[in-house]
């Protein structure tokens, strides 16, 4: 891209100015609503910013169109359950090894099919043989898998009914969430990269739906739609703080109510953790993107053909960056599930976890990491705040109606859907009038 | 006799629902494929366009019902459909003028239009929910069945019944009429031919004096009609639930790609391939198998290959298989 943007006087102050305005907005929420809401917006905003960084890496720096963000985010959440909850011993005895054996059978069938396909000579015999192999493998898998799952899910279904996790500290789940997402992304990329861009989009859309379907239905893994609640935390519990001498003493000395202060303290701890992760990520990304590797990536994005002519392995590089971007989304997903303290597979909606992240990236400025962070914070702020604002406006407009009038009730009830409407309008206006976003790529 | 019973059970639970679902997917995929062929982008807003069109049908049907208008044994929604199509056409044309036209003028990259369609999707999604909410709405009235399972049993003396719902028969009938009309239009009329010419080779079409804006306008009008019809038929057959229509995006795109993006014939074939695979792989064959094998072999389990919750996985798997082995789809689609 041209260098002229670098030298225009306004651009140097733009980023600090916008981030200052963003801070003012969040502090404003603290004064007008409550500090708890302000910190809630900040924490989820920081997580959204990390998701946006992941998508920005794929789209802004490599031009890869990933609309499966939801799936990668959900895998991160799954990692939290599988790493941090305590194992259910009885369930492991009932069917743990059998389930693992069944999964190995399944993977073996697929790998075997791929190997057979490559080794055998082309023709009808190969097609028949490979099909037969897959069919037999599938039934073998089901024969081992089904009874094992039934055995596990029969153990204490009201509170567990799953294998549980490894009982490790929850922070370890964050990088593992990234690894989970990276693994899924590698599989998608292996099949769909190198095909047309639309196909990658549809493939990612599909894999996200499948990941959610698996998480909803495979109860033996993370209890499916029965949800896992009370996940361990990396920060202290409010109730412990309220009972600890030092905390009460500290709050008394500044004259704060220990109950409110404890929940603010916890949220501040999370905010500190998330900020540390963001700073780490952005430093690493800025270093990588200003290195020869980053320049090569942008060269590939801007002209694939000439980069290929220069001897760059375009598909290989795309694979690399796709997997990295997905890993960042998985990390954000693990962080989000940790913050929520629960995994609820039914709450993953593509509009909220895929397309909203895209709005963040485009509005923030694709190709600019600080833009992605700003977009994540700002769009999340808007997503949360547009509903009370809409309610207020509707309240004023319908003030002539009686409080129990049906129409007023319906209007108030449906104000929540002003969120997608506003997001769409924001995206369309930014695309039309400021397609490079708030903080354009330099 | 048992083979007959097995066949009837298969027809009742797989063939009939699969055909109706296939017709609905085919109509949806036709819309996606026409946009791709003429405007050259994957329209993510298509699912929500269908929801919008269906919402018009639902609202007009309700108005007609309260005015005492009915269509006898047929659903009132069929009477409301033409008006709903007109409303959707107006909406879609307004969207094109306000949003998409600008990007054609600046010759934006196709992927840009895909992102723009995401914005349109958000707006439509929010608007539909604000107007009618998210409740499950059944708006089918009139006769529920053409043949009920009991009638079929008493007619044939078989122990298995075959039920055909009115909405299923209407779906197939309407789909056949719409597809016939569409192909007649594309292949026989001057305007249709100019559309195909534009899809095949934009430059040559422009050289021979075809007005691109006119082609685009007509495409949007056809797509609006197709989306409304597809959405209404799906809603009549199941029920109208706005968020379901966004989930339909995946099987619809899969149908269009499996058939070959940009190929109308492919969209129809793709729709039926996806629908039948979904229904067949997620149907519990216990009943059918019990009729076919000796009594002692009767299966204990459901003989279900995949749980119905994995129907997305089926469309996805077929999509991947086709992409790997025949990247342009069954009917040689185009690629931008």
What does this structure look like?
Chain A has two domains: 318 residues, Orthogonal Bundle (ABC transporter involved in vitamin B12 uptake, BtuC); 76 residues. In chain A, α3 packs parallel to α12. By secondary structure, chain A is an all-alpha fold. The longest helix of chain A has 32 residues. Helix content of chain A is 78%, strand content 0%. Chain A contains 19 helices and no strands. With 336 residues, chain B is mainly α. Chain B has one domain: ABC transporter involved in vitamin B12 uptake, BtuC (Orthogonal Bundle), CATH 1.10.3470. Chain B has 14 helices and two strands. A two-stranded antiparallel ribbon of chain B has the order 1-2. In chain B, α1 runs parallel beside α6 and α1 packs antiparallel against α9. Chain B is globular, with a radius of gyration of 21 Å. Chain B starts with a helix and ends in an 11-residue tail after the last helix. The mean pLDDT of chain B is 89. Chains A and B meet through α8, α16, α18 and α19 of A and α4, α10, α11 and α14 of B.
By CATH, the topology of chain B is ABC transporter involved in vitamin B12 uptake, BtuC
Beta strands of chain A, count = 0
Mean pLDDT value of chain A:
87
Side by side, the strands of the main sheet of chain B go 1-2
Q: State the secondary-structure class of chain B.
A: mainly alpha
Uncertain parts of chain A: 1-7
């Amino acid at each position: 891209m041209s260098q002229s943007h670098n030298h225009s006087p306004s651009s140097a102050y733009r980023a600090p100015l916008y981030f200052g305005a963003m801070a003012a907005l969040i502090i404003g929420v603290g004064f007008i609503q409550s500090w708890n809401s302000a910190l809630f917006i900040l924490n989820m905003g920081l997580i959204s910013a990390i998701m946006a960084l992941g998508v920005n890496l794929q789209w802004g720096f490599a031009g890869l169109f990933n609309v499966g963000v939801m799936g990668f985010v959900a895998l991160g959440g799954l990692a939290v359950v599988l790493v941090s909850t305590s194992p259910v011993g009885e369930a492991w005895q009932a069917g743990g090894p059998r389930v693992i054996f069944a999964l190995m059978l399944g993977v073996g069938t697929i790998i075997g099919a791929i190997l057979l396909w490559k080794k055998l000579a082309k023709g009808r015999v190969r097609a028949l043989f490979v099909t037969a192999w897959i069919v037999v493998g599938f039934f073998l898998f089901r024969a081992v898998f089904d009874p094992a799952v039934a055995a596990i899910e029969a153990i204490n279904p009201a509170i567990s009914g799953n294998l549980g996790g490894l009982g490790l500290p929850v922070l370890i789940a964050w990088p593992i969430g990234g690894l989970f997402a990276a693994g899924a992304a590698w599989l998608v990329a292996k099949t769909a990269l190198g095909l047309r861009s639309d196909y990658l989009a549809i493939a990612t859309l599909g894999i996200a739906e499948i990941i959610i379907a698996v998480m909803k239905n495979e109860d033996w893994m993370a209890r499916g739609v029965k949800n896992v609640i009370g996940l361990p935390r990396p920060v202290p519990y409010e109730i412990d703080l309220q009972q600890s001498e030092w905390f009460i003493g500290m709050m008394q000395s500044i004259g704060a109510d220990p109950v409110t202060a404890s929940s603010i303290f916890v949220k501040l701890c999370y905010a500190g953790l998330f900020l540390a992760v963001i700073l780490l990520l952005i430093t690493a990304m800025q270093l990588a993107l200003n290195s020869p590797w980053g320049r090569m990536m942008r060269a590939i994005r801007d002209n694939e053909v000439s980069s290929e002519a220069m001897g760059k392995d375009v598909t290989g590089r795309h694979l690399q960056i796709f997997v990295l971007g997905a890993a960042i989304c998985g990390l954000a997903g693990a962080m989000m599930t940790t913050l929520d303290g629960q995994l609820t597979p039914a709450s993953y909606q593509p509009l909220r976890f895929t397309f909203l992240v895209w709005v963040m990236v485009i509005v923030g400025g694709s190709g600019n990491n600080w833009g992605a962070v700003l977009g994540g914070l700002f769009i999340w702020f808007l997503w949360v705040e547009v509903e009370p604002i809409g309610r207020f406006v509707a309240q004023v407009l319908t003030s002539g109606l009686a409080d129990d009038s049906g129409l007023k009730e319906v209007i108030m009830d449906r104000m929540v859907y002003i969120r997608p409407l506003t997001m769409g309008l924001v995206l369309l206006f930014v695309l039309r009038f400021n397609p490079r976003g708030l903080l354009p790529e330099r | 006799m048992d083979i007959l019973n097995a066949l009837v059970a298969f027809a009742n639970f797989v063939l009939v629902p699969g055909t109706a679902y296939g017709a609905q997917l085919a109509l949806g995929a036709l819309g996606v494929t026409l946009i791709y062929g003429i405007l050259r982008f994957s329209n993510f807003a298509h699912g929500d366009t269908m929801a919008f069109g269906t919402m018009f049908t639902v609202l007009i049907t309700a108005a007609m019902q309260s005015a005492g208008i009915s269509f006898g044994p047929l659903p009132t929604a069929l009477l409301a459909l033409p008006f709903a199509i007109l409303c959707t056409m107006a909406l879609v044309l307004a969207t094109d003028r306000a949003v998409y036209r600008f990007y054609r003028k600046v010759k934006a990259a196709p992927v840009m239009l895909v992102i723009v369609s995401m914005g349109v999707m958000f707006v439509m999604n929010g608007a539909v929910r604000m107007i009618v909410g998210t409740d499950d709405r059944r708006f089918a009235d009139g006769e529920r069945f053409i043949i009920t399972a009991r009638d079929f049993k008493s007619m044939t003396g078989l122990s298995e019944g075959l039920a055909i719902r009115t909405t299923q028969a209407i779906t197939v009938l309407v789909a056949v009429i719409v597809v016939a009309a569409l192909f007649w239009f594309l292949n026989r009329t001057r305007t249709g031919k100019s559309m195909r010419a534009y899809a095949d080779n934009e430059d040559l079409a422009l050289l021979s004096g075809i007005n691109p804006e006119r082609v685009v306008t007509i495409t949007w009008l056809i797509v609006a009609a197709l989306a409304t019809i597809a959405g209404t038929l799906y809603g009549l057959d199941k029920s109208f639930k706005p968020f379901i229509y966004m989930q339909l995006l995946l099987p619809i795109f899969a149908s269009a790609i499996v058939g070959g993006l940009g190929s109308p014939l492919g969209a129809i074939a793709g729709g039926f391939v996806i629908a039948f695979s979904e229904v067949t792989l997620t149907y519990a064959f216990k009943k059918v198998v019990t009729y076919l094998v000796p009594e002692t072999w009767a299966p204990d389990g459901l003989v279900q290959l995949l749980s119905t919750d994995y129907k997305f996985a089926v469309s996805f798997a077929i999509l991947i298989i086709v992409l790997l082995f025949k990247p342009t789809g069954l009917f040689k689609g185009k690629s931008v």
